Amino acid sequence: MADPMQETEAMELDDEPEAEVRDGMPEFLEKMLHLTAGHRKETIDGAKEFLKKEFPDWESGCRWEYSAALLGSPVFPATRFIGAWCFQESINNRNVGWLIEETAKLLRHPAEEGSNPAIPIFVPPHLRSAMDWVRTADASRDKRRVIAGVAGTGKTWILTESAARILAEDFRSRVLVLCFNRPLAIYLRNEIHRSMKKKLGGRWKPVGGCRGPSVTVDTFFAFMGWKVPDAPDPDEDFNRKEALKNVLKMRGEDLKAIYGSYSHVFIDESINLCFYNSVDEGKSTSWLGLLENIWDETGCFFLSFDLEQCVYSKIEVTDREREYLGVSQDLKQVIRSPSLVCDSFLAHASKETREKKIPTRECPQVLGMPVVYCEPYLRHVSWSDCDVQGIENVVRIIEEYELRDVKEFVILTETRQLASFVGEGLKRALSKLKHRHSLCDAATLARSHGSAMDGERRIVVDTVRRYQGLQGSVVILFGLPSGQDPLMYLGKSRCSGFLFVVGTEGACEEMRQKEKVYKNEVTPSISRKRKEEPEGAPSLKWIKI
DNA sequence: CTATGACTACCATCCTCCCT
DNA sequence: AGGGAGGATGGTAGTCATAG
């Protein structure tokens, strides 16, 4: 095998200049840290002025990221990176939400002055600082990089760009990229190849169906199951998942013999892989341990987590993942109990807070992302009739937003059955509209991303779970039952622009209530700024059938 | 040769019902 | 009231047939 440290062919990257590898923060981040000390409104305004001067091409507002770089975790002294949206003016502050209340408070008052504070780090539109941070992994003592953030913080973007850069710099790097479901794997593969080709300025040409340089992008199950030894007796029932569990128990050398070794390992939405953990006779086996075993520690080991998703999904987490997440308490408890979950965020905020015993609070109310409009319809006896009305509402939304030049719509349901019903209904209804539309599912969208024909409107109809990890500018949640917070969170967090809920009166009312609480109690300062509907808001009004 | 859809298997989760 | 069993639904995977 080629020595990864040996000299490589000179390859100039066409976009970014070679940055100095350093442990400290880039200068502008230090400046931002100074400007935002105390995190008061006036300091933020000052910081924004500074940013507008530094980045004149960017006027859309702020993203705030929180780093616990200075926490001095005994496990990973290097760095950890926590991201969360605070607000984004470009979409009229609509995306403030989907944080639980305590998180939102934390974001506005991250830490007391003088304590070991969470560092508010400004990340410019292209997330350059996060990229640099990942890039320093190779030269750093601890090569592990964990990015935890709510949806939309750019975790996936950082992953694809970092992987593409590594491959563009050296084709021979053995890079492994894993995630949970197939649509996301397809998307990641396409994005990495696209980005890599761009960096190489078109000099890379795949040869004869070759999948490119030595990058493996797949789902965890497919990657692991692919090489799981088959059952010795073909007639015998073969449970591949059981076989996988046996693989998880193997030791490092055996694993390397089966899977080979990789210099760079990237895992997106990695919290979902905890499904493959198991506990046998008191001994737990973990996907994380397995992947660490096939990592040769010459490159970076990159994980992205969505902590809030952990809250909702009730996922079992082993000690190893707990270490990665950097919480001092029993994360299993943290995850299972909504009243404790905010502590995992506090744990990142300051050492004092982390070590302090936090009194039991009432469960923080799970708050909704501000919804553009809810479109309720009755759904009781004959569901199909009522869902027909729902589809009419969806068509209205699509018509309205096409006038605003939106070309991609995402409609998410709970079940596949409802998804196909909506798909059929839309096909009939949209055939009457003048624009061409193509309906597809999440996997098809991921496969053809970036290759849309001019003027073509794409409408994705799929289940929420299958769309996990992907994002859309206009998302319509169709017929999600109220009270299903995990699903609601997943669905809402898929939206980067306008979110609609088309559903039962109960679900819509619940959404309105949550938004009301959110506006009045969590972000009053932001809510006050938009008394009248901002420009660009739809002219649709509440519809009650 | 490749993409797609229909079918199957297995496991996880949630909800409901029933028993203690 | 609390816990367990069972059903419905979701996810993943695989195989096979078919169409382009």
UniProtKB/TrEMBL annotation:
InterPro entries: P-loop_NTPase. It comes from the Eukaryota. This is Uncharacterized protein. It comes from Darwinula stevensoni.
